[in-house]
RNA sequence: GGAGAGGUGGCCGAGCGGUCGAAGGCACCCGCUUGCUAAGCGGUUUCUCGUCGAAAGAUGGGACGGGAGUUCGAAUCUCCCCCUCUCCGCCA
């Protein structure tokens, strides 16, 4: 949620942010609703103040053994009036609340303005796709040849855009998950969490998937749960409605979870292979920090994710997303992309976002600074990494001319062999 | 699924329908003190939303799991829901 004080005191900043994001939200309507809401609030409060005074008076008289019937009658009428006003006010609040949920975060000033990927800014890494000295097979071909993915049967048991890893493929996938978890827990100071992946509606509002991304998620029919689209949801909601101590911060969590996405509307794109699927594995990083340290921690998180790509020795680049490419709740987002020489494409394997206080306001996650009251924490998260595309990058980059796949050094202790095939 | 207990401030934990935003403790912060790996003494500190104010602050509303009700008035009474714990049953 955006800061309501900003809405009141400096709406032009929000208007500018909306423009940068190409949003067509009617801000004036929301401002108007907010004014109405406050006016109504004041009215109700004044009536209640009167009633409280009356009640006190009654109590006093009763203690003296009197029966102040006239006052009681007056108070009764007041109460009725209050009830009516309150009902109206509740409606006003509800409408305002619903509307304000749709306001996206204000982008950080360093974020380039633009509509699509072409406006993203290169930060570091490879400027050019590396060339292989032989014809690299795309992952769907090499994986079929080596019998480590079975997409036909995945489709038989679940449908299109599902992955079935098999044999050494399953082992490689498992190795990746373990490697990522070990890396972040032992080298980067994250605490491992293994959370539930069915999350209730409140959690999805908390992190900002709802209301906007409703149709991108799987919902349970009989219970108010969504299948988690990312571990960001459980990890960030762990401290929902809490006041943390300043000395606890930063809190760093890492979790492996499967992630579920309907990918509605993406049909026709990326049809082959496993770049875009309904269920995938991801190791996710989440941090809670103070506003002062927020961006330092954020840059560190980018490095933590980058370390994973580096350790696997994959060709990569880091892009700063433009306003049009960022998600709704994010103030700033970096993508780490690896190159897949078989597909001849750059693939996003990690997206690292800082939400500043946008999520913490929604989820009411605060911290106490000794002697200086409470404030909302900064939250941020990043993939560290998502496996399917990392898997692709490995089978395509580590492919040999004779059709094998070498195992990256750092994974050997998990896989137990040097290569897959022959 | 059945039976019972319970959900109160950052944490633990009291709380006859009005003087309870809530005893006490812990923690925290601020002083003082002390010759010892820290203790003692005193004091402060719930959160939230309005209004006025540049600010310090002043003033009012609200919050004791959530919602509805009874009442002039609810942490306290009634109903519904949610959650936690214990026991029984069932199941991986």
What is the fold's blueprint, element by element?
Layout: H1 4-9, H2 11-20, H3 27-63, H4 69-100, E1 121-125, H5 139-146, H6 151-157, H7 168-187, E2 191-193, E3 198-200, H8 201-207, E4 225-227, H9 232-237, E5 242-245, E6 251-260, E7 279-289, H10 291-311, E8 316-320, E9 332-340, E10 345-356, H11 358-363, E11 365-368, E12 374-376, E13 378-386, H12 387-397, E14 405-406, H13 409-415, E15 419-420
Parallel strand pairs: 2-6, 5-11
Antiparallel strand pairs: 1-8, 3-4, 6-7, 7-13, 8-9, 9-10, 10-13, 11-12, 14-15
The structure holds one RNA strand of 92 nucleotides.
Low-confidence stretches: none
Q: Could you state the order of secondary-structure elements as H and E? A: HHHHEHHHEEHEHEEEHEEEHEEEHEHE
User: Mind telling me the C-alpha Rg?
Assistant: 27 Å
Strand content range: 15-25%
Task: Please give the largest β-sheet.
Answer: 8 strands, mixed
Shape: elongated
- Helix- and strand-based class? alpha+beta
How many DSSP E strands?
Answer: 15
**Helix share, percent:** 40-55%
Strand order of the largest sheet: 1-8-9-10-13-7-6-2
Mean pLDDT equals 92
Helix count, per DSSP? 13
Q: What separation lies between the terminal Cα atoms?
A: 55 Å
Give structural notes.
The chain is of the alpha+beta class. 42% of the residues lie in helices and 20% in strands. The chain is built from 13 helices and 15 strands. It has helices at residues 4-9, 11-20, 27-63, 69-100, 139-146, 151-157, 168-187, 201-207, 232-237, 291-311, 358-363, 387-397, 409-415; strands at 121-125, 191-193, 198-200, 225-227, 242-245, 251-260, 279-289, 316-320, 332-340, 345-356, 365-368, 374-376, 378-386, 405-406, 419-420. Strands 1-8-9-10-13-7-6-2 form an eight-stranded mixed β-sheet. A three-stranded mixed β-sheet has the order 5-11-12. A two-stranded antiparallel sheet has the order 3-4. The protein is elongated and about 100 Å long. The termini are far apart. The model has no long low-confidence stretch (mean pLDDT 92). It binds one RNA strand of 92 nucleotides through residues 38, 41-42, 44-46, 48-49, 51-52, 54-60, 62-63, 68, 71-76, 78-79, 242-245, 366, 368, 370-371, 374.
């Amino acid at each position: 949620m955006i800061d309501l004080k900003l809405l009141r005191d400096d709406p032009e900043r929000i208007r500018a942010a909306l423009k940068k994001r190409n949003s067509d939200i009617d801000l004036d309507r929301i401002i108007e609703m907010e004014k109405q809401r406050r006016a109504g609030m004041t009215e109700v409060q004044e009536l209640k103040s009167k009633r409280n005074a009356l009640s006190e008076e009654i109590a006093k008289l009763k203690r003296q053994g009197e029966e102040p019937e006239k006052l009681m009658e007056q108070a009764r009428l007041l109460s009725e009036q209050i009830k009516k006003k309150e009902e109206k006010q509740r409606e006003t609040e509800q409408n305002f609340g619903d509307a304000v949920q749709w306001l996206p975060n204000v982008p950080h000033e360093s974020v380039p303005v633009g509509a699509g990927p072409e406006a993203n800014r290169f930060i570091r890494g490879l400027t050019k796709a590396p060339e292989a000295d032989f014809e690299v097979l795309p992952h769907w071909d090499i994986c079929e040849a080596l019998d480590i993915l079975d997409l036909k049967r995945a489709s038989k048991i679940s449908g299109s855009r599902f992955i079935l890893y098999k044999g050494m493929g399953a082992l490689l996938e498992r190795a990746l998950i373990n490697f990522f978890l070990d890396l972040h827990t032992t080298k980067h100071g994250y605490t491992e969490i293994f959370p539930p992946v069915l999350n209730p509606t409140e959690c999805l509002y908390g992190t900002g998937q709802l209301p906007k991304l409703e149709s991108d998620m799987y919902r349970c029919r009989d219970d108010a749960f969504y299948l988690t689209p990312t571990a960001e949801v459980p990890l960030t909601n762990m401290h929902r409605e809490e006041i943390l101590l300043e000395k606890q911060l930063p809190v760093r969590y890492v979790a492996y979870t499967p992630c579920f996405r309907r990918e509605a509307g993406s049909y026709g794109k990326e049809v082959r292979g496993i770049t875009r699927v309904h269920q995938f594995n991801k190791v996710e990083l989440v941090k809670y920090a103070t506003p002062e340290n927020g961006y330092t921690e954020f840059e560190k998180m980018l490095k933590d994710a980058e370390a994973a790509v580096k350790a696997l020795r994959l060709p990569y680049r880091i892009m700063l997303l433009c306003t049009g490419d960022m998600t709704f709740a994010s103030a700033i987002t970096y993508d780490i992309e690896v190159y897949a020489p078989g597909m001849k494409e750059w693939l996003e394997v990690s997206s690292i976002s800082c939400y500043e206080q946008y999520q913490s306001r929604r989820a009411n996650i605060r911290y106490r600074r000794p002697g200086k009251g409470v404030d909302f924490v900064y939250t941020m998260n990043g993939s560290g990494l998502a496996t399917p595309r990392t898997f692709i990058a490995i089978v395509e980059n580590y492919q040999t001319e004779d059709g094998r796949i070498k195992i990256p050094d750092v994974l050997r202790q998990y896989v137990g062999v040097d290569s897959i095939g022959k």
